[in-house]
Amino acid sequence: MNTYQIIAAFSLLTLYALPVTGAPPPVNLVKNGSFELGNVGFTSDYILSIYDGGYVITTDPSIFNGNLVSVADHTTGAGNMFSGNGHATVGKTVWESQNIHVLANTTYTFEVWVMNVCCKPSAAFPDPASTNPASLRFDIVIGSEIATLGNMDTNLYAGIWDSFSTNWLSVTSVDITLRITDTNTEIFGNDFAIDDIRFLAPVPEPDTYAMFLLGLGLLGFMSAYRKSKVD
User: Fold this and answer.
1) From start to end of the chain, where are the E strands?
2) What is the pLDDT of residues 50-86, one digit of tens each?
3) Which of 40, 58, 62, 155 could form a disulfide with 160 if both were Cys (CB 3.0 to 4.6 A apart)?
4) Is 231 helix (H, G, I), strand (E, B) or coil?
5) CA 83 vs CA 46, 179, 194: distances in Å
6) pLDDT class for 216, splitting at 50, 70, 90?
7) pTM of whole model > 0.90?
8) How far apart are CA 191 and CA 52, in angstroms?
9) Strand 47-48 relative to strand 191-201, pairing
10) Exposed, middle or buried: residue 3 (CB in 10 Å: 0-12, 13-18, 19+)?
11) Are 126 and 205 in contact (CB under 8 A)?
């Protein structure tokens, strides 16, 4: 079997298997968006602390602050999450990704899970304990420009994971960063957790793969046919 026949055979075999396997899942471009690697892959204006304007990477916020609810992460129920204690100063970045390169005229999907972690119900913290839940803003930063993807308040009741998701269409091929800010500057009750931050790059649909592989197969057969005619 010559090279052209091998290409054709491989293409057709892959095309035959495609309806079973389907296209691969989207690729998450955020490094350590689930925080399983610990305190890496992002920057923050918050400091490593359990106090106001601080954060910890933890499996349970109550480990570091006994007033916070005992909850598991969103990813596996046994992994890490980002737990923040709201900052009193306006505009402080909670979390910002490393540089992410995007392609021009491409639709990306941003997803994140957030939770109110204040507080264990008590005389000081009735249920719902938090009257000032975090109000998170999600931005894309391109140089000096900021495009806001949306805003979301954490649930008034603590211990409930809620998701935010939206699409974003790029204009040019450029490096961006993703940024999360807590616009609430109240100290009391402004405690939150973040997990599973994803910025998903699109993948070709199965029919796109099919057409590509079919093209390869036809190209291989045509090349083999022409070669046989010459020989």
Assistant:
1) 27-28, 42-43, 47-48, 54-58, 81-85, 93-97, 100-102, 107-116, 135-142, 145-153, 162-169, 174-182, 191-201
2) 899 999 999 999 999 988 999 999 999 999 999 999 9
3) 155
4) coil
5) 11, 16, 7
6) very low
7) no
8) 9
9) unpaired
10) exposed
11) no
Q: Which pLDDT tens digit goes with each residue over 140-189? A: 999 999 999 999 999 988 999 999 999 999 999 999 999 999 999 998 88
What the block records as the tokens of 41 is 């892959």
- 21: its two tokens: 């396997």
Q: Which residues pair with 110 in a beta bridge?
A: 166, 199
pLDDT digits (tens, 9 = 90+) for 9-35: 444 444 444 444 556 788 999 999 999
> Token pair for residue 72?
């598991």
Strands 47-48 and 54-58: parallel
Place of tokens 């998903």: 200
